Amino acid sequence: LPVGGLTNIGILGCGGRMGRMLLQELSGRARLAGGVDKPGSGLIGRDLGTLIGTEPCGLRVGEDAGALFAAADVVIDFTAANAAARHAGLAVLHRTALVMGTTGLDTEAEAALHQAATKVAVVRAANMSIGVTLLTMLVEKLAAQLVPDRYDIEIVEMHHRHKRDAPSGTALALAEAAARGRSVALEQVRRRSGDGDTGPRAPGEIGIVSLRGGDVVGDHTVIFAADGERFELSHKASSRQIFAGGAITAALWAATRPPGLYSMTDVLG
Ligand code: NAD
Are 146 and 192 in contact (CB under 8 A)? Predict the structure, then answer.
């Protein structure tokens, strides 16, 4: 586990799929301030090194998120949507930068994140990979070119069977980008998948379809369908390393930034 590096990074949700990947990817890039998981979890007290199958490192899984924010320069959160508002509040209380990777946030959590961003640097992205950051930019540009009365936009996403929220935060971010490209509000044009006699598709709608199964890390395809042709942009993640690597890059960047709500586009310049 990491030693050296100047930035102290804390990991919230260190026992989860993304948390463990972060512990593996941190090595050599930053100093580990600690890891916290859900209070009452059976993982509390486990050594963070043995948690990822390496040598014990002397740091144990904690359950006090406040203590983690106090100890870290920046905290990375991959936990659960219902914890996000509290974590945003702790970031303000301890003046600690925050990287929010957790998706499916409700309006209360969104508001807390915006509030926190007035006091500390907050990087928020539904997908921390470089590929999806570029895809999002491409989708906005294409949507601006491929006019709504000719090109229907459908977004298809697939994730592993354990994923809790649908559609994925990434699919929503891609839909937002398409709507931005067309200068419309997503909620006014969003098409929800129906069943039975759903009637014809209205021009300009942006649809999202979610599939769940197996161990799929994250597939997203944006389809621009017209009469006589179809344009598809796809991104397929085969390892969570791409999200963890991006989240660490975002954390190192956020630790040096003034207060504000930033995206991965800001981080990657
Ligand atoms: P997971 O269920 O494997 O891990 C979540 C971990 O957080 C668990 O160990 C759980 O016990 C812990 N946790 C839950 N509530 C907590 C709390 N209040 N305090 C501390 N720890 C708590 O889930 P995962 O696959 O690692 O995904 C976590 C989140 O990250 C999801 O919202 C997912 O959609 C999102 N995600 C985002 C990206 C991205 O690039 N932004 C990539 C992958 C996953």
Answer: no
